[in-house]
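Checklist before submission:
- one chain only
- standard amino acids only
- sequence pasted in full

Submission:
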Amino acid sequence: MGPRVFWIVLVLFGFFFLWGLSAILLPFVLGMAIAYFLDPLVDWLELKKLSRAGGTAIVILLFFSMICLVLMLFVPLIENQIVNFASRVPALTAGLRDRLDALVIRLQVQAGIPMADVASLKEAAQGEAGRVLSWFGTILTGVFHGGLAFVNVLSLIFVTPVVAFYLLRDWDLMVARIDTWLPRKHAATIRAQASEINRTLSGFARGQAILCLIMAVFYAIALSLDGLQFGLVIGLVTGLLVFIPFVGTLVGAITSITLALMQFDTWPPTLIIGGIFALGSILEGYVLQPLLVGDRVGLHPVWVIFALLAGGVVFGFVGILLAVPVTAVIGVLCRFGLSRYLASPLYAPPGFETGQDIALTPKEPV
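Returned file contents:
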């Protein structure tokens, strides 16, 4: 078996492995992500003369204790807002429909539009809205069907910390063992690309996590202070969705403004919500994103959105967790391949000076 065939078989095996076992992989993938995220902190404790096992135990205990504390503080509030929201959806929807009907009638009277045209426009708008909601529902159904629906919540709670602990404790040993498996002829090249992948992923993952946390707190507090019902839930969800470029902020803005139109009888609170999301977009895009994340992934936002949607549809929630790391790895490898191509005779033939155009002249007619 040649090396190319080996790598192709390995990639195909990994794909079908994820596809076949995606329903039970969530605790393991999440535990691996936590171990990767916390590894620098354990390395720092090792430098302070603390054993690897002891540092791992302390870090894991503190990490999951903080998560439990946050859940104890926020879950009752979030649950209460979700229950209230579910019970008030019919009334809020009816109120919004009445306001829209009144607005349509006013526009019809002022513009002199025939009632038949207004009815056809409303019917077309409702049909398009139904198709859009169906599309989003299909994506969400695929995500949860492929991930959370088949994962026992207890396994997620108990298996994830165990997996994270053992992976974090043995992280350096695993890296060293994998290094001994590399083909000796290409070991230096593979190490260089692995180092670039690690630099890319570590900077992005940790920076993006801090960014999502800051934006979640900002939106939750700002929307709650404006008096928006369910503002805490919407703000937290919006902040957590910030890792999807443009989508998180857009979904949060549309949801908040729609609820504001249902709730408030005057325009100022709704305009303030629009200002909150405008300020949040500026804060995220021009202050926090360059400071915390920068251009570490090296991917266009469109590719990130595509990767997240594709990963969610194919592998469920596991695919969403793996989408950006896998895409970043592919990006690093593609840039490496491009650099090799630009340095090869295929790009610049012998005797040709890079930067000049190769003159392509038509052949003389025979």
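Reviewer check: The longest helix spans residues 52-111.
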